[in-house]
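Is heme C placement plausible here? Inputs below.
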Amino acid sequence: MKFRKLITSAVVASFALGTAAPLFADEGHEHSKKKRFEESQVRHDVMEHFGDGFSKIGKIFKKEAGTFADFPAIAADMADAATKTKASFLKDTRGMKGHTEAKDIIWDNWDDFAERLDKLEVDTAAFSVAAKTGDMKLIQPAMKAVGANCKSCHDKYKDK
Ligand code: HEC
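Reply from A.M.:
I modeled the complex. C-alpha cells:
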C-alpha cells in the first residue's frame, strides 16, 4: 500500500465519515435487552454488521484500534451481510409479538424497500472491490456511497 497517500486521504475521509461512524456505533444499544421475535433478531443481527463495520472504520481513522490493512476484511463482511439483508426482511412480520424497530410501512412499500437493499448490496460489493486495491482514491467514494444508504432508509423505515 502507498502509505503516505493513504494517510493524507484518510484525513479527508475522516471528515466525510466523522458524523456517520459514531452515529452507527451506538445506535440501538438501549434496545438490545428487549425480547425480539426470531425474524426481528435475525435482521437486527444482519444490520449489526453494517454498524460494526462503520464503527471499526471510525476507530481506524481516529487511530483507536485497527489499521487500514483491515479495510478489505471489513468491507467483505459488509458485502456478505448485504447479500443476506433482503431475505431477512422478506417475511411480513406486521403484528407479531415482540420487539422490533422495523416499521410496518416496509411491507406497504416493499418494492421501494427492496430496491434500497438491492442498492446496498451493489454499493457494498463495490466497496469490497475498492478496499482490496488499498487505494484511498477508490476506497473513499465507494465507502461514502455505502454510507449514503443508511440514514435515508432508517429515517423512513426504522423506529428511533
Ligand atoms: C433499506 C433500509 C435499510 C438500509 C439501506 C439500512 N438499514 Fe439498518 N436497519 C433497517 C431497519 C428496518 C432496521 C430495524 C430492524 C428491526 O429492528 O427489525 C435496521 C437496523 C439497523 C441496526 C440495528 C440497530 C437497531 O437500532 O436495531 C443497525 C446497527 C443498522 N441498521 C445499521 C445500518 C447501516 C450502518 C446501514 C448502511 C450501511 C444500514 N443500516 C442500512 C433498515 C435499513
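Short version: The chain has one domain: 3-25+35-89+102-157.
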